[in-house]
Design goal:
D-Maltodextrin-Binding Protein, domain 2; cell membrane; MetI-like; 19 helices; disordered N terminus; ABC transporter permease; elongated; ArtM/GltK/GlnP/TcyL/YhdX-like
Length: about 500
């Protein structure tokens, strides 16, 4: 009965918190539209994008440094110039973009996004700035087998999750099984390993892959589409009328001067040629090095915070004070009962509505809070494993409860739990990869950038796998060294 009451109490707190968080932006928008004035006042325009979709947006390696480029980036720079502000680009996965917009992490989203009726219910859109059309990518050796859209009936077709291409394939191809993935590079890898027979993409992106990968060919779709929902547009928070008006003015000038075809697409093509001129993994070593650096920082800081939080929660759970015990049990059960990915998203987007936390800080907080719950149970088990005779002997010597815990119980418990604690530290290195979904440049994030830039699906994955093994194996040897010393003490 107590457990049920605790569960309902936790859910009630979450519902109230979520209502407060969700209500704040709505109130702000209802009062007045200061979207343009706010941007001009702070002097920067924040654009969220998923830079894995050439030629719209992708990353290029310039003298060892990563830079987001592409047609959409060029358009955004012109818009920022017209507004007399600086452009700031935030990178994250495609399915997180609109969430970032709605929670105030970005002022606009540009990602070759189509203004579908479903999306228009949640966000505002600019005028259409580009209509590229729809294609399918198929393997060249299967081009005769799948020459057109009709031949894809009853087959497995891939598309990026949450995109127009995903919904179109599901709706218009008879008997199709649509496989959604977050990254275009993952879809291409699945296609080339024959897990898919085709991948739906916008025509410019499909053409970019074909130009840089001779094993692929593009076939045109036969969708009968309305340009108002199938073209590319810029997304804004609901009620951003003044900002949308200003951006539409810039887009009108861009289209009148035909800058997209005359300049922006050509510039994107030049960057793509630079990327594919040298696709060796050695050329991208700085990407992997940066990914390892961020992965180790997240794991190390989260590990330290997790241990401190874990000790506190374990002591609270063993406390005779019912409130402390209830809080500890509630926290541990809730954290262990929800996925780490959801926790990362909530800290970054949910808490971020109240406090605008950077992606790296949000990732560290989420991983730390998650790790603390598991470490708490490890420490509690270690404390329980210490013989009660040790406690009684310490009491007979006149030691206080705090001295007994600090000098007698915890040192012995640490010796007992060291292997389990070591496993948690090793898991932190691997689990920290989930923060890539909010744009933290850890090893997984950098891996996906290299795959998108080089059009190579397998080798970057292999390199990342080796690097993870080196990190975890090295930590294992260090932990074993200290475990051996404990055994001899």
């Amino acid at each position: 009965m107590k457990t049920i009451k605790q569960l309902f109490a936790i859910l009630a707190v979450l519902v109230v918190s979520f209502t407060i968080i969700q209500g704040q932006p709505a109130i702000a928008h209802a009062a007045t539209d200061d979207s343009l004035a706010a941007i001009q006042k702070r002097g920067k325009l924040v654009m969220a994008t998923s830079p894995d979709y050439p030629p719209y947006e992708f990353q290029t390696n310039q003298k060892g440094k990563s830079k987001v480029v592409g047609m959409d980036v060029s358009i955004a720079k012109q818009i920022a110039k017209d507004l007399h502000v600086k452009l700031v680009i935030k990178s994250m996965t495609f399915d997180s973009l609109l969430v970032a917009l709605e929670t105030g992490k970005a002022d606009m989203v540009m990602a070759g996004m189509n203004p579908t009726p479903e999306r228009r219910q949640s966000v505002d859109f600019s005028d259409i700035y580009y209509v590229g059309g729809q294609d399918f990518l198929v393997n060249k050796d299967e081009a005769s087998k799948y020459p057109n859209q009709k031949s894809l009936a009853n087959q497995k077709v891939g598309a990026q999750t949450g995109t127009l291409q995903y919904n179109l394939a599901k709706k218009h191809i008879p008997g199709v099984t649509v496989k959604g993935m977050d990254k275009g590079a993952d879809l291409i890898l699945a296609l080339k390993t024959h897990k898919l027979v085709a991948v739906g993409m916008e025509k410019p992106a499909a053409e970019a892959y074909v130009k840089n990968d001779p094993s692929l060919v593009a076939i045109s779709s036969t969708y009968n589409l309305d340009e108002n929902s199938s073209g590319s547009a810029i997304a804004f928070r609901k009620g951003s009328d003044s900002l949308v008006t200003a951006v539409n003015k810039s887009l009108k000038d861009i289209k009148q001067d035909n800058l997209i075809h005359k300049v922006y697409l050509k510039d994107a093509g030049k960057y793509m040629k630079v990327n594919t001129a040298n696709t060796s993994m050695g050329h991208y070593w700085t990407y992997f090095a940066k990914g390892v650096q961020y992965t180790l920082i997240i794991a190390a800081v989260s590990g330290v915070i997790g241990v401190v939080l874990g000790v506190l929660l374990a002591l609270m759970r063993l406390s005779k004070v019912k409130v402390f015990k209830w809080l500890s049990v509630s926290y541990i059960e809730f954290v262990r009962g929800t996925p780490l990915m959801v926790q990362v998203l909530f800290v970054y987007f949910g808490v971020g509505v109240i406090v605008n936390l950077p992606a790296l800080i949000s990732g560290i907080i989420a991983v730390s809070l998650n790790s603390g719950a598991y470490i708490a149970e490890i420490i509690r088990g270690g404390i329980d494993s210490v013989s009660k005779g040790q406690d009684e002997a310490a009491q007979s010597l006149g030691l206080s409860r705090s001295d007994i815990m600090k000098s007698v119980i915890l040192p012995q418990a640490l010796k007992n739990i060291w292997p389990a604690l070591g496993n948690e530290f090793i898991s932190l290195i691997k689990e920290s990869s989930i923060v890539s979904i909010i744009g933290v440049t850890d090893l997984i994030y950098q891996l996906n950038i290299v795959r998108a830039d080089t059009y190579r699906g397998v080798m970057p994955v292999f390199i990342a796998m080796v690097l993870y093994f080196i990190m975890t194996f090295g930590l294992t040897r260090i932990l074993n060294h200290f475990e051996g010393r404990m055994q001899h003490d």
